[in-house]
Write a structure and sequence with these properties.
The complex is a heterotrimer.
Chain A (H helix, E strand, L loop, with lengths): L8 E3 L15 H5 L5 E7 L11 E9 L8 H5 L5 E3 L14 E2 L1 H5 L14
Antiparallel strand pairs in A: 1-4, 2-3, 3-5
Chain B lengths: L7 E6 L2 E6 L4 H6 L25 E4 L6 E2 L10 E3 L3 H16 L15 H9 L17 E2 L4 E3 L9 H9 L5 E4 L6 E4 L12 H5 L5 E3 L12 E6 L8 E7 L2 E7 L12 H5 L14 E4 L2 E4 L2 H14 L4 E5 L5 H14 L4 E3 L8 H7 L8 H6 L2 E5 L3 H4 L1 H14 L2 E6 L11 E4 L5 H12 L5 H7 L4 H13 L4 E6 L8 H14 L9 E5 L5 H6 L20 H9 L5 E5 L3 H4 L3 H10 L2 E6 L4 H6 L2 E4 L8 E4 L4 E5 L12 H11 L9 H11 L8 H4 L4 E2 L32 E7 L5 H4 L12 E4 L1 H7 L6 E6 L2 E9 L7 E6 L7 H4 L5 E6 L1
Parallel strand pairs in B: 1-5, 16-17, 16-23, 18-19, 18-21, 19-20, 21-22, 23-24, 24-25, 29-33, 30-32
Antiparallel strand pairs in B: 1-2, 3-4, 3-5, 6-7, 7-10, 8-9, 11-12, 12-13, 14-15, 14-25, 26-27, 27-28, 29-34, 30-33, 31-32, 31-34
Chain C lengths: L21 H15 L5 H18 L6 H13 L7 H15 L1 H20 L21
Helix pairs in contact in C: 1-2, 1-4, 2-3, 2-4, 3-4
The chains are: A alpha+beta, B alpha/beta, C mainly alpha.
The structure holds iron/sulfur cluster (5 copies) and FE2/S2 (inorganic) cluster.
One iron/sulfur cluster (SF4) binds next to helix 3 of chain B.
Chain lengths: 120, 826, 142
């Protein structure tokens, strides 16, 4: 695959600390021309540290059925937390399953954790 | 006081002629020429500019140095340049300097996206920085108070928050400590900054240094929508803008309206929006079934209410209060008067003067405006505590005194927070308002018996003469601010006459800038009265077909079976009405109690048989009337949760079910009905009211106000207060924080009020009570537990209790009117 | 003084002989004003503090002659833009020192750098921090 191919997004963690790179700043959501990113952030506490900054994304969702794969979100991100990956198999039977949650985006590609369980 | 006349001046701005009002600062003057000059520290609401940030530098011909446009007034013939190389270099320099010690926090900073520092750096900054040294560091974020978080690294030291605390709210708590680049904002000894108006600093701060702990990280500006409406948590009816994300209120911001709120909000208005999303909120209709309230369908609840009302023809009483809109009030009185033949309804908790006198007090000529307060020659605060009764009034009075030299006199029984700003303070015994007015009337007419009258009322005669002299000498524009309590209770008619006499002597009706301003007991008190929620006045102060019972008489009627059904529109009588005992008996005896409520407060939880879920103020549609006669429009900002329905439609449907012809189908139709019924609202439409409201006393239709006799009257001598015999005189006050919305808002819970008995040191010593000790306050067999609070400013012989405290309100021992109580340790 | 384009302090006369390095004079002046700045207006508060940090860095051997341009630029940005004259009172002498003793500053920076390098290569005998306390004659600059 061409290295700069823009496929399904991935969210990243810091390799050393395991913390999420995303701080929930919503800049990607602001940049997105298709308005398909939803970020709801919350505050990190010493007991529950999710990201490196003061805030983290409590909810991070991308609606893949609306995404136009322009990559603006990747450009907007000040922390390289989101990048366009190479996963292009993005068809499903329900629209709802095309909303990728933070867990799905953080997971290694192809390991799908859909919103509903098998056989539902 | 004559308002400054607006002359215009012409000056040259970047080579173009611009006209602007005289004496405005260049920053504002430049806007008339469509030029924006960047500012950080300039905020006209805070008073005199300080010229601290240096962002607004411009070049003025004839002056060697660049000048700050925020503190230079425009002059005729001035030649100003804002776009020269010199100005640009200076602007870039200031931005570069500001960023020297500013962290690169934008992605995690709550201000990001609505940050003046971001905008100005982008628009006027150099684009790069040459600063490579280490920045200053502070621990962050810290709690400045339970409501506000402070990040001192982000502070650009614009002084706004400090000036607010020092010069607007005058709580003198915030200061800048240390100096030079080490300066930081704090309270002097590090205590939390808790004050009634503290939230305003969040909105003032031009960076993300001060953030609301309730809003932190909840949303970005592009995630939200703004929705303008009115705060109806108190009579000040501040104009607000709700920030809404995903159908939830996220925060409340001020929507500046100089004629109402001057751009400020109190902390209740700023944070109590959380109550709209509280878990304890009622979101479904409920009916009492087997002794317990259970959620039911609307059909069942409406059916139960309609059949109870139908059965009780002629024997229904109703109370309305708090955030009831004019439309709901109008429909309520229509339901009772026209469909149920029961004109027993009241919106004044402690009753009031008869129709003629009450209307005379509400006459358009006597109405003073919020702006009048600021420009008056003298202001008299009479028997009310603005910061508790109508908080924004407090800021307005302070502003008048500080910036325009208004002469302030305070005549209250409880020590007021305005005492320090007042030129003259008169302490009256609780309930001594009428006597004070009668004595003042005598002093103003130079009657000979002033001494005698004052002595009988327990007042200080020389102080009274001084007060009379102050009010007459200051100038013709005198504004008298009073609380509803002044003209309530069994002697309301006498007090009203005395007040009208004083108004007459001071010629308040004749002067444009003079008048009366009342802080009513309920947020929309004035609107409720004008819409006819009174036992003896129909909409527009007209005479009703039949007079009904007042609130106290409704209680009595229910207790002895003359009335059987009670309709409560946003009122919990155990909480808001005086004389709790009487209402306990009334509620127990009533066969059906129907209530509109948003939370199950004591009286509703125990006694209501049908509960309709109330809309929160952010969900309402309709109008309210400000105490100065301004009609303001509520617009729904969020959808109603659960199965909550518009309350006007509930009232309209009930009326239909008990036999009235089909009523209004939309909210604006009710407004139209109201405008038709109230002669002096004639022709008013929602469009005319618009975003800033319209004062009906200023409209032509005001001439339709019913003719009333306004005195002067022959005054009856007020009865002498009863002898104390070792007991203490009970005074009550309403705390700003004693409200169900405060209790239901997580952010404000720490402020919820517990009952305190405020005692003078001498009395406390005599009774052997220590500060903070448990005491019991007893009267006529009823007693109330409280915590003693010894305050040196409390006059000896009196004790003060707070009204409206959940479960422990002063009304347990008021017995309808303030009297004598026994205070004992334990 | 004004004619000479200088203003060493608030118009008082300070006598300094040629054995005192100009860097030390500049640091002394800057520190004094940074300490005295009330912090109300931006150019003075941030400008004095920035100047001190730059001078300290140059003196400790972390600077380059290019920093002198920034230093001079910062002084220019302060002059005339403050609320009172305290900021100007620092910016004018520092500005004129940079203009009139540029070579000496450059030599000082160079020497400090060499010392610091030496200290890094052969730790001991002289910790770099000591340099900032110099008050006596300074061989290279003299
Ligand atoms: S790739 Fe473009 S359309 Fe898709 S989420 Fe990112 S910004 Fe939005
Ligand atoms: S992915 Fe990047 S741009 Fe989007 S919220 Fe997270 S940190 Fe901000
Ligand atoms: S205050 Fe403004 S400029 Fe500073 S970090 Fe926050 S958003 Fe960025
Ligand atoms: S905290 Fe905010 S408002 Fe207060 S001085 Fe700093 S920047 Fe200004
Ligand atoms: S003063 Fe009254 S109306 Fe204004 S914000 Fe506070 S509670 Fe609301
Ligand atoms: S806005 Fe003029 S000095 Fe701050």
């Amino acid at each position: 695959m061409y290295p700069r191919f823009r496929g399904r997004h991935r969210l990243h963690r810091f390799e050393d600390t395991g913390l999420e790179k995303c701080v929930g700043c919503s800049l990607c959501a602001a940049a997105c021309p298709a308005d398909c990113i939803r970020v709801v952030s919350a505050e990190n506490t010493p007991e529950n540290r999710i990201s490196a900054g003061e805030r983290y994304a409590a909810v991070y969702e991308i609606n893949m059925s609306r995404c136009i794969f322009c990559g603006y979100c990747e450009v907007a991100c000040p922390f390289d937390a989101i990048t366009m990956g190479h996963d292009y198999e993005l068809s499903d039977y329900r629209r709802g399953d095309l909303i990728f949650t933070k867990e799905m985006l953080l997971a290694e590609p192809l390991e799908r954790t859909p919103l509903r369980a098998e056989g539902e | 006081m004559p308002r400054p006349e607006l002359r215009t001046v012409r000056f040259t701005l970047d080579g173009r002629e611009v006209e602007a009002p005289e004496n405005v600062m260049l920053v504002d003057g430049a806007k008339y020429g469509d030029v924006e000059i960047p500012v950080f520290c300039y905020e006209p609401k805070l008073g005199q500019p300080v010229g601290a940030c240096r962002m607004c530098l411009v070049e003025i011909e004839g002056m060697p140095k660049l000048q700050t446009a925020c503190s230079t007034a425009v002059k005729d013939g001035m030649v100003v340049h804002t776009q020269t190389e010199r100005v640009r270099t200076a602007q870039q320099a200031v931005v570069e300097f500001l960023l020297v010690n500013h962290p690169l926090d934008c992605p995690v900073c709550d201000k990001g996206g609505e940050c003046p520092l971001q905008d100005i750096s982008y628009g006027w900054g150099p684009g790069t920085s040459r600063f490579i040294e280490p920045k200053r560091h502070f621990r962050k974020p810290l709690e400045l108070s339970p409501l506000v978080a402070i990040d001192r690294e982000r502070c650009i030291l614009c002084y706004r928050c400090v000036r607010f605390s020092q010069e607007v709210a005058e709580d003198y708590q915030l200061v800048l400590l240390d100096r030079g680049a080490q300066s930081f904002v704090a309270t002097f000894d590090g205590h939390p900054y808790v004050a009634p108006f503290s939230g305003n600093i969040v909105e003032l701060c031009p960076v993300g240094a001060l953030t609301s702990r309730a809003y932190r990280f909840r949303a970005r500006p592009w995630d939200v929508e703004d929705s303008g409406s009115i705060c109806t948590l108190c009579p000040a009816q501040c104009n607000v803008s709700f920030t809404v994300r995903d159908e939830r209120l996220m925060r409340v911001l001020a929507r500046q309206n100089d004629e109402v709120d001057d751009g400020w909000l109190c902390d209740k208005g700023r944070f109590a929006y959380q109550s709209a999303h509280a878990d304890e909120r009622i979101v479904e209709p409920m009916v009492r079934d087997g002794g317990e309230l259970r959620a039911v369908s609307w059909e069942r609840a409406l059916g139960a209410a309609a059949s109870a009302l139908g059965r009780a023809q002629g024997r229904v009483g109703a109370l309305a209060g708090d955030g009831t809109t004019n439309e709901e009030a109008f429909l309520l009185q229509r339901l009772l008067r026209e469909a149920l033949d029961s004109p027993h309804l009241d919106s004044r908790p402690a009753g009031g003067p008869p129709r003629e006198l009450a209307a005379a007090l509400g006459a358009p000529a006597l109405a003073a405006t919020m702006l009048d307060l600021e420009h008056a020659h003298a202001v008299l605060v009479l028997d009310c505590e603005p910061v508790d009764d109508m908080p924004i009034l407090d800021l307005r009075i302070r502003k008048g005194v500080r910036r325009r030299g208004v002469r302030l006199a305070v005549a209250t029984s409880r020590p007021s927070s305005l005492d320090e700003n007042a030129e003259l303070v008169v302490r009256l015994p609780p309930g001594g308002g009428e006597a004070l007015l009668a004595a003042l009337d005598a002093a103003l007419t130079s009657a000979s018996d002033v001494e005698e009258r004052s002595a009988a009322a327990g007042l200080d005669a020389p102080a009274l003469r001084q007060l009379a002299a102050l009010l007459t000498e200051a100038g013709e524009d005198v504004v008298v601010v009073h609380g509803e309590r002044l003209v309530s209770g069994p002697r309301a008619a006498h007090a009203a006459r005395a007040l009208l006499n004083v108004a007459e002597r001071l010629r308040l009706a004749e002067h444009e800038g003079a008048g009366l301003l009342e802080a009513p007991a309920h947020a929309n008190g004035r609107g409720l009265r004008e819409a006819g929620v009174l036992p003896e006045a129909a909409p527009g102060w007209t005479e009703p077909a039949a007079a009904g019972r007042s609130a106290a008489e409704i209680a009595a009627g229910l207790a002895d079976g003359d009335l059987t059904t009670l309709y409560l529109l946003h009122v919990d009588p155990l909480r808001t009405q005086p004389d709790r005992g009487a209402w306990e008996r009334a509620l127990a005896a009533a066969s059906t109690v129907i209530a509109h409520a948003s939370v199950l407060t004591e009286g509703i939880a125990e006694h209501a048989d049908v509960v309709f879920p109330a809309e929160s103020y952010a969900e309402k549609e309709g109008t309210v009337t400000h105490p100065d006669g301004r009609l303001q429009r509520l617009r729904p900002a969020i959808g109603r949760p659960g199965s909550v329905r518009a309350e006007w439609s509930v009232l309209a449907e009930l009326a239909e079910r008990v036999g009235l012809p089909a009523g209004p189908l939309t909210g604006p139709m009710v407004t139209a009905m109201l405008a038709e019924a109230v002669a002096f609202y004639a022709g008013i439409t929602l469009d005319e009211i618009g975003g800033k409201g319209v004062r009906w006393p200023k409209r032509e239709a005001a001439s339709a106000f019913p003719g009333v006799e306004a005195g002067p009257f022959e005054l009856e001598r007020p009865p002498a207060p009863p002898a104390a015999n070792g007991r203490l005189r009970l005074g009550t006050y309403r705390s700003l924080w004693a409200a169900p919305e405060v209790e239901a808002s997580p952010a404000l819970k720490f402020l919820a009020v517990r009952q305190r008995a405020e005692l003078a040191p001498a009395d406390a010593e005599r009774l052997g009570i220590a500060d903070g000790a448990a005491v019991s306050v007893a009267r006529n067999g009823a007693s109330l537990a409280a915590q003693a609070a010894i305050r040196s400013a409390i006059p000896a012989g009196t004790v003060f209790l707070a009204e409206g405290v959940e479960g422990a309100g002063a009304n347990a021992v008021t017995g309808g009117e303030p009297g004598l109580v026994e205070v004992r340790p334990g | 003084m004004a004619k000479a384009g200088s203003m060493l302090g608030s118009g008082s006369i300070i006598v300094v002989d040629e054995t005192v390095p100009v860097m030390d004079v500049a640091r002394k002046v800057a520190k004094f004003y940074a300490h005295e700045s009330c912090g109300k207006c931006t150019p003075c508060r941030e400008g004095t503090n920035w100047t001190v940090k730059m001078l300290d860095r140059m003196d400790s051997g972390e600077g380059t002659p290019m920093d002198l341009d920034i230093l001079a630029g910062v002084q220019e940005q302060i002059i005339g833009n403050c609320l009172c004259v305290l900021g100007d009172s620092m910016a004018m002498p520092i500005g004129s020192m940079v203009a009139k003793f540029r070579e000496e500053f450059e030599a000082h920076i160079e020497a400090a750098r060499e010392r610091q390098e030496a200290a890094v290569l052969h730790p001991e005998p002289e910790p770099a921090a000591m340099l900032s306390d110099t008050t006596g004659p300074y061989p290279e600059a003299a």
